[in-house]
Design goal:
Helix content: over 70%
Radius of gyration: 30 Å
Number of strands: 0
Number of helices: 1
Distance between the termini: 99 Å
Length: about 70
C-alpha cells in the first residue's frame, strides 16, 4: 500500500514539474513574440511611409504626364 502511495505522490510531483515547465516555456515563447512585435513595429511604420511617398510620386507623375499631352 505504501508503494502505491509513493508512486501516486511521485506521479503528482512529476505532473506538477511538467506543468511548470510548460508554463515557463509558454512564457518564454510569449516574450519572444513580444520582442518580435516590438521589432516589427518600426518596420511597419517605415513601410507605411514608403507607401505614402510612392503614392505621391505616382500622382505627381500622372499629373506631369497629363500636362504633357
Amino acid at each position: 500500500m505504501r508503494f502505491y502511495l509513493v508512486l501516486f505522490v511521485a506521479c503528482v510531483a512529476l505532473a506538477q514539474v511538467q506543468a511548470d515547465n510548460e508554463a515557463t516555456q509558454q512564457s518564454g515563447v510569449q516574450k519572444i513574440l513580444s520582442n518580435i512585435a516590438e521589432a516589427v513595429e518600426p518596420l511597419h511604420s517605415l513601410h507605411q511611409n514608403l507607401a505614402d511617398q510612392m503614392e505621391k510620386v505616382v500622382n505627381r507623375h500622372r499629373r506631369n504626364t497629363n500636362l504633357d499631352q
